[in-house]
Amino acid sequence: MAIKVIKEKCVGCGACVTVCPADAINMIDKKAVITDKCIACGACIDKCPVEAIYKESTKNGGVNIDDYRGVWVFAEQREGKTLNVVRELLGEGRKIADELETELSAVLLGHNMEEEADLLIKYGADKVIYVDDELLDVYTTDGYSKVIFDLIEERKPEILLIGATNIGRDLGPRLSAKVHTGLTADCTRLDVDKENRRLMMTRPAFGGNLMATILCPKHRPQMSTVRPGVMEKAKLHEDHEGVVEVVKPNLKAEDIKAKVVEVVKSDKPVVALEEAPIIVSGGRGLGNEEGFKLIEELAEKLGGVVGASRATVDTNWIDHSHQVGQTGKTVRPGLYVACGISGAIQHLAGMQDSKCIVAINKDANAPIFEVADYGIVGDLYEVIPELIQALDNVDD
Ligand code: FAD
Questions:
Q1: Which are the contacts of 291, defined by CB distance < 8 A and separation ≥ 6?
Q2: How far is CA 223 from each of CA 177, 324, 353, 354, rounded to the nearest angstrom?
Q3: Residue 296 above 80 pLDDT?
Q4: Shortest-distance Cα residue to atom 37 of ligand 1
Q5: Would you say 389 is a known binding-site residue?
Q6: pTM for the complete prediction?
Q7: For position 263, what pLDDT does the model report?
Q8: Which of the listed residues 40, 79, 288, 382 has the most CB atoms within 10 Å of its CB?
Q9: Distance between CA atoms of 154 and 185, rounded to whole angstroms?
Q10: Nearest residue by C-alpha to atom 26 in ligand 1
Q11: Which ligand 1 atom is the nearest neighbour of the CA of 363?
C-alpha cells in the first residue's frame, strides 16, 4: 500500500475520512486506517493537520525493483471468451519474458472459464492465474481492480500488459494509481533494456508527429496498455505446457459499488477492422457520403471491409467505428486499399504495417504513395469502377 498512517501522530480528527474520494479510510480506535480501496490520490496527505499520513517510498523515491519478477498479461474476456488482443499481448509478452529470462503469466478473471484458461497456456503462457468467482463474470472497475491489485501486492510482477480496449483503458489507470506506479497508455511498440530490466514503451505523442519512448525506472510493475491490432498474435502450440492456478479472490458484493444490471449490445453493425484480411478505405477524395457506396462495392468484391480516414468520419459520411489511424483503429491486413486518402501521418500510424498497400489518388505527390507498394494516380471514380470490372472478368 502506497499511503501509510503514522499511528502515533494520528489524532483521530477524521479530516482524512471526509476528504477521501474513494471512501477508503476507516476510523478504528480513533486512528485512521487505509483500506485497499485506496487509489493513492494523496488527498488525505494534504488534508491531515498533523502530518500523520505519507506516501510510502524507498530511498530512490520508488520501490525495491529487485523484489519484482515476471511478465503478466491481462487476459480480458467478454462473455467467457478471451479477446484477440490477449493473443497479441501473449505473443509480445513471450518475447519480453524470454529476453528477461522470466515467467510469462496470463491473469484471467471470470467464472467457469477453465477451457479458456487451458487455451492461454497453448498460446504461450507459462502460468495462468485464473481467478474464478461469480462476481467476476462481467467486468466492473471495483471488482477487477481490487482482485488484480491484491495479486500484484502479493506476487510482485515486474511488467503488466493490458489491451487498450474500452475495459483496458478503464482498468489500467485505476490499477496503476492503486499500486502507485506509472502507466504508458496506447503503446504501439515495446522493447526491453535487458541490462536494467526496463520496459521501453513507445507511443505516438504530440498529435502523432513523433514517437515517444517512455520508461518507468523507479516503480513496479511497469504498466502499459497496448493498442489492439498492433502486435503479432501468438501462435497456438498444442504441446506447450504450463500451469493453471485457480485462485479464490477476497471479494465481496459490497466491494463493487456499480452493479451491472444488464449488458445491452450496440445495434450498430460491428466493424471488425482489426481482424479483416482486406480493407478498402475511403477518404475526403470521395467528395461526399455517397462515395462510400463505391468503396463498399470494391470491398465486397475483394471480400474485405470498409475503412475510412478521420476527415470522412468528422463530416459524418461514415461511423467512427470505421476510422483507421491514430485516433481510430490500428490495422495490419494483408491488403489495404487507400482511395482518395492523402496519407497524413495520423492515418499512416494506423495502417502502415499492412502487408500490401495500394493507393489511388489523383495527386501524384500525395504522401500516401510513400508507403504504398502499388500506386495508381488517377480519379478514383474512374479507377475503382475499372478495378471492379476487372475483378468481375476474373470471376467470370
Ligand atoms: P485529405 O487530406 O483532404 O486528402 C484527400 C485526398 O484525396 C487528397 O490527397 C486528394 O488528392 C485526393 N483526392 C481528391 N479527389 C480525388 C479523386 N476524385 N480521386 C482520387 N483522389 C482524390 N486522420 C485519420 O485518418 N485517422 C486518424 O486516426 C486521425 N487522427 C488524428 C489525430 C490528431 C490528433 C490529429 C490532429 C489529426 C488526426 N487525423 C486522423 C487527421 C489527419 O491529420 C488528416 O486530416 C486526415 O487523415 C485527412 O483525411 P483524408 O486523407 O481523407 O483527407
A1: 282, 317, 340, 380, 381
A2: 11, 25, 24, 27
A3: yes
A4: 346
A5: no
A6: 0.72
A7: 87
A8: 40
A9: 24
A10: 325
A11: 11
| Mutation test residue for ligand 1: of 310, 324, 362, 377, the one with most atoms within 8 Å of CB | 310
Exposure string of 188-201, with b = 16+ CB inside 10 Å and e = fewer, is: bebebeeeebbbbb
User: Does 343 belong to an annotated binding site?
Assistant: yes
What gap in Å lies between CA 111 and CA 81, rounded to an integer?
A: 11
pLDDT tens digits along 68-83: 999 999 999 999 999 9
Structural contact between residues 283 and 341, judged by C-beta atoms closer than 8 angstroms: yes
- On the question of pLDDT at 360 being above 80, the answer is yes
Residue nearest to atom 45 of ligand 1 (CA): 311
Q: Which residue has the higher pLDDT, 270 or 17?
A: 17
> What does the mean pLDDT of the chain come to?
93
Going from the C-alpha of 181 to that of each of 71, 89, 157, 247, 361, the distances in angstroms are 15, 20, 12, 24, 46
Write down the ipTM of this complex: 0.99
Three-state SS for 93?
helix
- State in Å: Cα 88 to ligand 1 middle: 29
